[in-house]
Specification:
Elements lengths: L9 E5 L3 H14 L4 H4 L8 E7 L2 E11 L2 E9 L8 H15 L4 E7 L3 H6 L3 E9 L2 E9 L1
Parallel strand pairs: 4-5
Antiparallel strand pairs: 1-2, 2-3, 3-4, 5-7, 6-7
Pfam family, one: Acetyltransf_10
InterPro entries: Acyl_CoA_acyltransferase, Bact_Acetyltransf, GNAT_dom
Protein name: Putative N-acetyltransferase YjcF
Length: 145
């Protein structure tokens, strides 16, 4: 059997949404029970998509919705096999550096409450009350770039 190999630690912008949507479907729809209709919200075309790969293929994704000088980071998803490896944090750091280089001054996101600690370690600060998004408690967070 021929095994497809991928370069390690690759983080890139992507226009082909096949891998990002597959990751998001596995994480949000299959694992967390979000409906496919809520996950595929019609906003992907207005966003910039990022993908992280390891030596076995795509492992993490996110999308960014530009909002003036603020970048709204959305749909951050890491496959179960890559959680705890630092790939999600590496993706976030890479994207935030790229956003700063492009002139964005602030990043914001709606974090699942269970992931707030992850984002705090990346410099985000929680703001406002907890709210429901797709049946999952979330809280807004921001960070200067």
């Amino acid at each position: 059997m021929i095994m497809k190999t991928y370069p390690q630690n690759v983080i890139e912008r992507v226009e082909d949404l096949t891998a990002p949507l597959a990751i998001r479907t596995e994480v949000f729809v299959e694992e967390q029970g979000v409906s496919l209709a809520e996950e595929i919200d019609g906003q992907d075309g207005a966003c910039v998509h990022w993908l992280a790969r390891d030596d076995r293929g795509p492992v993490a994704t996110l999308r960014v919705a530009p909002m003036g000088t603020t970048a709204k980071i959305q749909r951050v998803a890491v496959l179960r096999r890559a959680r705890g490896t630092g790939r999600g944090a590496a993706l976030m750091r890479h994207v935030m550096a790229a956003l700063a280089a492009e002139g964005f001054v602030r990043a914001k996101l709606g974090a699942q409450v269970d992931a707030i600690g992850f984002y705090e370690r990346l410099g985000f600060v929680a703001q406002g009350p907890v709210y429901d998004d797709a049946g999952i408690p979330h809280r807004d967070m921001t960070r200067d770039l």
